[in-house]
Amino acid sequence: MDDLLREFLVESAEHLDTVDAELVRFEQDPNNQQILRNIFRLVHTIKGTCGFLGLPRLEALAHAAETLMGRFRDGYPVSGSSVTLILATLDRLKAILADLEATGSEPAGGDSDLIDALEQMSSEEAPAAAAPPSLPVLQALPAIVERELKPGEVSLEDLERAFMEAPGPDDFASEPPAPVAVPKVEMAAAIAAEPAAPAREPEPAAERSAPSASAAAEGGEGGVAKVQTIRVNVDTIEHLMTMVSELVLTRNQLLEIARRHEDSGYKVPLQRLSHVTAELQEGVMKTRMQPIGNAWQKLPRVVRDLSAELGKGIDLVMSGAETELDRQVLDVIKDPLTHMVRNSADHGIESTNERIKAGKPARGSIRLSAYHEGGTITIEIADDGKGLDLAAIRKKAIERNFAPAADIERMTDAQVAKFIFHAGFSTAKAITSVSGRGVGMDVVKTNIETIGGVVDIATELGRGTTFTIKIPLTLAIVSALIVKANEQRYAVPQIAVLELVRVDPKNDNKSTNTIERIHGAPVLRLRERLLPIVTLDGLMRGQATVEEGEVVESGFVVVAQVGRQRFGVLVDEVFHTEEIVVKPMSSKLRHIPLFAGNTILGDGAVVLIVDPNGVAKLVGQSAQSGAATETEAEEIEAGDAKATLLVFKGGAGGFKAVPLSLVTRLEEIDASKIEHLGGRPLIQYRGRLMPLVPADPGITLRSEGNQALVVFSDGDRAMGLVVDEIVDIVEERLDIEISADRSDLIGSAVLRGRATDIINIAHFLPLAYDDWARGPRKTTVKAPSLLLVDDSAFFRDMLTPVLKAAGYGVTIAASADEALAALKGNPGIDLVVSDLDMPGRSGFDLVAAMRGAGGRLAEMPVIALTGTVGADAIEQARRLAISDLVAKFDRSGLLAALSEIGEAGPSGDARAAA
Amino acid sequence: MQAANANTVATDTTDYVTVFVGETMFGLTIDRVHDVFVPAGITPVPLAPKEIVGLLNLRGRVVTALCLRRRLGIPAREAGAAEMAIGLEQAGETFALIVDGVGEVLKLGADTQEPVPINLDARWRDISLGVHRLDGRLLVILDVDALLAFGDARDAQVA
C-alpha cells in the first residue's frame, strides 16, 4: 500500500501541475473542448484514485471540482471567478497531498467552504438546459468507481475463500472411499461454483467502467503518450549509467583480447555485444535529458494568478520548450526561473492604466524562450514593461553602500543593473505579497552560478527588461572532438571548432598546408588569412607561446573561434567526435582555466575537456610575454583595445610595424624573378603583375636569394611591400607618438621594448597604383561620403586610405562633438563610421545624439567600430539602429558592412535622381 | 575542527585502515574509507596542484587521485613500484589517495594514543591527529579533512 500511495502522490502532483497549466489555457480559450477534456480526464483520474485508496477528503474535493468542470464541458460559460475557484481547489488538493506525503494520512479538517462554493457555482444560475442531464451522468461516474471497488474487494475475499477450500476436493480425492467421494466432489464443485458467481460479478462492473475509461481516453490526445511513460528513480538511472560505462569498459577489454587471438570464435558474438552495448549506452544517456518545458509547466498558472492578484493583464509567451537539458541543470534552474518570471510580472510589467497612458498595449507580455547557442543553453525572460529605473538603482546602491559612490557613478548601465542581484536590494516602492522583499534575485544569481551559469540584464526605460541566462556546458551532454597531444587525449567541444586542417612539414607540393614561422611564432595561412597557432601540448605545459626549436610541423590544426578571436590549436591526432556527458572538475582543479570539465569516454578513460574560452584567453595573453603576470591578465580583461602588429626590419636595421589585419599575405619570393617595367619593380604573382614598393627608401631589392614581401591587397589589386626581414607578430596596446615630418610613417611606438616605426600604408598604396588612393572606381556615379570618427589618429590614418581605396569620400572627426559639428555642417555625408570607445562622449553617445537630432541624422546609417564585441554592446547597438558592429582592424568586415549599406543606398539615390 | 576530530578518537576503540608510505605506517579511520583499489588508467591533469596525480575512473565515477607522498613532501616512489589507492569522500566528491601499500585493519583504543610530537615536520603535523604506539612501530593517524584541505587557499584566491 505504501508504494501505491507514493506512486499516487507523485502522479497526482504531476496531474495537478498539468491541470494548472491547462486551466489557464482553457480560460483564454474557453471553446477548446480538447483542453477541457484533458482537464476533466486528469481530475477524474485523481478522484478515481483517491476513492480507490480510501482518501475521502481528497475525493470529495476532486469530485466537486469535477462536477463544475463537467458543466463547462456541457457548455456552461467559463468565467474568471470559476477558474479561480477551481484553481483554489487544486491548491487545496495540493496542500492535502503534501500533508499526506509528510504524514501518510489525510489531514483532519473539512473542505466544506470550497465544496459549497463549487456546488453553488455548479447549481446556481444554470441557464443552459444541457446542465441538468449532465449532472446525473457525472454523479454516476464516482458511483461506478465505488461499485468497481466494492465488488473487487468482495470478490477477492470470495476468491480467497474459494482458494482455501479448493484443496478440499484434493484431500477427499486422496481418500479411497469412492462412493462417498461422489457427493463430496459435487459439494466441492458447488463450493467452487459458489464463489465463482460473485467472482463473475466484477466483470460487468469492469465492463461498465470500461466505457468511462475509454471515454476518458478518447477525451485526451495525451492519453496514449501517458501510457508510454513510466517513472524511474533518478538514482536508478544514475546507477544504470555507471553500470553501462563499466560494461563498455569490459567490452573493450574483451575486444582487445580477441584482437590478439586471430582465430578467436568470439569475434562475431563480441561484435554483437559491442553494438548492443553502444546502443544501451546511448539509450541510457537519453534518459538523462528532459525538455526545459518541464520546468516551465507551473509558470502559466503563476502568471495567471499574479495577473489576477495585481490587476494587470499579462500574457506569457513560451518558445523553445522542447530544448533539452540535463536533468540536474533543470532542477537547479526551475526555481530561479519561476522567481524571475514572478519578478517580471510584479516589477517589470506596469499596471494597465500606466500602460495605456504610455501608449502600450493594455496587456503586458512576458516572453520566455530557450535555445542552444554556442555550446551554452540560453534562456531569455523578456518583458515589455517599464524597464529598470537605473537612476533609482544607482541611488539605492549608493544609499545602501554597495560600492563607493564614486565607483557607482562611473559604472556602466549594465553594471548598475546588476545591483538588483545584490542581497537585500529592492527598489519596489511598495512591498507586495508577490515580490519586493529584497530576497530572491540574489538567490537566483547564486543558484545559476552554482552550475556555472551567468545572468545578464538588458533594460531600457519604458521598453522592458530582458534577462538572459546562459548555462554552460557543465552537466549538459555535448558533442566533442577527441584529439591527442603528447600521448594524452583531450575533448574539444565541437561547438567552438570551425574546421580541421591537416598540416605537413614543408615540401614542394604546394597543395598541402604548412605551418610557417615568424620569428618563431607559428602561423598558418588559411584562405588568405593568417591564423595564429598554439600547440595543445604547449598549452598543457602552461605556455601559450611555442618554444624556439619545438617541432610543430605536422598534425592537425583545430581552427577554433571564440567571440571574434580565431586561432588554431595544433594537435597530434584527431580521432572522432563523441557525445560526452560533461562532468564538473573537482574543486581542487576548478581554478585551471584550460578545462571546462572532464568526462569518461566510451572506453572508460577519463578525458579532460578543453575550454575554448580559457584557451582563447591564454592565446591573447601569450602575445604579452612568456611570463604573464596577474596584473597583465587584468589588463586584458579590462578590454583595452589592442592591436596585432606585424613587425619587420627595413632600412638601416630599424624595426617597423604594420597592423596585421591590413596584411593579406607574407611571401618569400625568389629575387631573380623580380622584373622591372618602366623602371618599377614588379613580380608575377598569382597570374598577375604585382608592383613592389620598398618599405623604406633605404631598402634595396635583392638580386639573388629570397626576398621577403608583405602583400597588401584590395579586390584584385595587390601590392608587395619589400622588407628586409619579417620579425614577429605582437599584440600590444598601441601608444603611438605621431610624427608629422614623414608621410610614410604614422609615428613610432614601443613594441616588445623596441622602438618601432608604424608605417602608413596610405603612403605606399599610391606608390604602387597611382590611382589607388584617389577613388579608383571613378566609374561609380557618385562616391558615397562617409564620416570617420575615431579619437586615435592612428586608426584614422589607417582606415582613411582603406576607405578611400574602396571608393568612399572620407571626412574625419576626432571626437563625438567634432563629428556632430561636421554632420551638421556638411549635408553631403551619407553615413558614419564611428569608434565606440572614445574618451569623453562615446560612440554610443554620438549615435544617440544623432538619433535624437531627428531628420537626416536620425535615419543615417552608422557602422560602429569596437575593440571588444560584447552582448551589451550588441544590444545597445541594436537599439540605436546601428547598422553593423565591426571589430577594429577588421578591414574586410568593415568594407563588407559598407557595401551592404551601399547596396541599399544607391537604389535610394536612383529614386532621388528619377 | 580539532574538537570534532577529538570526538572520533575519544571513543573507546576505533578501527583504522593502515596504509604504508615508505617506512611509515599511517592510519585512516575506517568510516572515511570507501574503497581500496589498485589505481589504473590515471589521466594526468596539466597545470594541476602538485599533490594531484590525475583523474581516474572508479566504476563510472571520475575520481581525483592525490599522492600521499607528494602531499607529505617525500620523494616519489620508483617507477613501476606497487601502488594502492584508498577511496575517500568529502563534500560529495570522491578522492583517491595513492599510497605504497595497504595493510590490515587495526582496532585501537585511546590508551595507546599520543599527541603529535611537536618536532614533527609541519607538513606532517598539519594532517596528523595523533600517533599510536604499537608493538615495534608507530602508527600516524591521518586527518582526512586536513589531508584534503590542500589547494583551498589557492581556490579562494582565484575566486
Report on the structure:
The complex is a heterodimer of chains A (914) and B (159). Helix content of chain A is 46%, strand content 24%. Chain A is built from 30 helices and 35 strands. In chain A, the strands form seven sheets. In chain A, strands 10-14-15-13-12-11 form a six-stranded mixed beta sheet. In chain A, strands 27-19-20-30-29-28 form a six-stranded mixed beta sheet, with helices on one face. In chain A, strands 21-25-26-24-23-22 form a six-stranded mixed beta sheet, covered by helices on one side. Chain A is globular, with a radius of gyration of 38 Å. In chain A, 36% of the residues are buried. In chain B, the strands form two sheets. Chain B has a six-stranded mixed beta sheet. Chain B has a five-stranded mixed beta sheet with strand order 3-6-7-5-4. In chain B, β4 and β5 form a beta hairpin. The two termini of chain B are 24 Å apart. The N terminus and C terminus of chain B are likely disordered. Chains A and B meet through α11, β17 and β18 of A and β4, β5 and α5 of B.
Features:
heterodimer, A: 914 residues, alpha+beta, 6-stranded mixed beta sheet, 35 strands, B: alpha+beta, 11 strands, globular, disordered C terminus
Entry summary:
Chain A has 914 residues and is of the alpha+beta class.
- Principal-axes geometry of chain B comes out as globular
What strand line-up does the widest sheet of chain A have?
Answer: 10-14-15-13-12-11
Largest sheet properties of chain B: 6 strands, mixed
Tell me the number of strands of chain B: 11
Average the pLDDT over all residues of chain B and give the rounded result: 82
The two chains with the largest interface, and their residue counts, are:
A-B, 29 and 28 residues
Count of DSSP-assigned helices of chain A: 30
Strand content of chain B: over 45%
N- to C-terminal distance of chain A: 87 Å
Q: How do the SSEs of chain B run, as a string of H and E?
A: HEEEEEHEEEEHEEHH
Number of strands of chain A: 35
- Percentage of helical residues of chain A? 40-55%
Oligomeric state of the chains? heterodimer
Q: Which band does the percent of strand residues of chain A land in? A: 15-25%
**Spatial strand arrangement across the major sheet of chain B:** 8-1-2-11-10-9
Give the proportion of residues in helices of chain B.
10-25%
What is the residue-mean pLDDT of chain A, rounded to a whole number?
72
Helix-and-strand structural type of chain B: alpha+beta
Q: What structural class do helix, strand and pairing data of chain A support?
A: alpha+beta
